[in-house]
Amino acid sequence: MNDTKAIINRMKQAFKVKTNKELAEKLGTSISNIDNWKKRNNIPDKYILLTSQMNDINKNWLLTGEGNMYSGRWGLQTSGNAILDNLLRELNLKDENELIEYLEKNYDYKTTKDDIEKWKQNGEEPYGLLTKIAIKEKINLENLLFKPKTVKINFFEDVYAAAGAGAINHSIKPVILETDLRIVEKIFNIKNPAYGIDIITVVGDSMEPYISNGEIIVIERNNNPHNGDIVIANINGNVYVKKLEKDPFGKWVKLISENPAYETIKIEGEELNDLQFVGIVRAKIRPF
Questions:
Q1: Of 20, 51, 195, 247, which residue has the fewest beta carbons closer than 10 angstroms?
Q2: DSSP H helical segments within 41-112, as ranges?
Q3: Is residue 172 over pLDDT 70?
Q4: What is the pLDDT of residues 105-124, one digit of tens each?
Q5: Which residues contact 14 (CB under 8 A, 6 or more apart)?
Q6: Residue 223 vs residues 57, 120, 136, 209, 286: alpha-carbon distances, Å
Q7: Distances (CA, A) of 136 to 129, 208, 213
Q8: Using an 8 Å Cβ cutoff, are 276 and 233 in contact?
Q9: What is the largest CA-CA distance in the chain?
Q10: Helix %, strand %, coil % for the chain, to 5?
């Protein structure tokens, strides 16, 4: 039978803490629960698993003290920014503002943008809170704390972006594709897939020679593109692929075609309320 007290000590070692109170905070539980583990000589499996996942610890070492301490699977995310991106992706949230609202509504956890900035810059992530979220939302902590091995991509078979006149969305239900993260980073040139990746087809020739009719484009979801980006813009249900130029004071936006035969679309005034940026084109695929 495993020695519960020794396991608890190794759990503290894994988290680099000294007291039961600190361990309880890391695991999102209470000191009284840890005391009960000792009395019953039993630690719930989920806390063993959490300790292993959160610290890249060899589970066998944790239970017996034998073998290598670290599992060496992927290595913890050293960047708080990376952990935050993982959290947004797993909770299907768009940005930090939605995260702040989510935490207060679902966990009565009040935080600010300044707090989140500390998570990103100084590695001050609230691990106890992350643990609670993982348990409640049934999220594998590896998906929060480690670099994901695979990325999900939304393939919209019947959604088209117009390189010409506006095309209409005919379907909004994608086929979910899963691919290696390295493909997304190296081939599609998407360094941060947290907000989502879409694949759709282009119709029309207004973006030739940059993008041709019938080519498939890979889109990084982003609602705040910069001047010069090739963007996917939705105007009252019409979906365009165009080069972006926008007024720094937010008075107007121009959607520019690469093909000089097509006029620039200028949006200003109240028309801006009908404009939504879906994302930025990062790659294209030309079927043979």
A1: 247
A2: 45-55, 59-64, 80-91, 96-107
A3: no
A4: 998 888 888 888 877 776 56
A5: 51, 52, 54, 55, 57, 62, 69
A6: 38, 21, 29, 25, 26
A7: 11, 49, 46
A8: yes
A9: 80
A10: 40, 25, 35
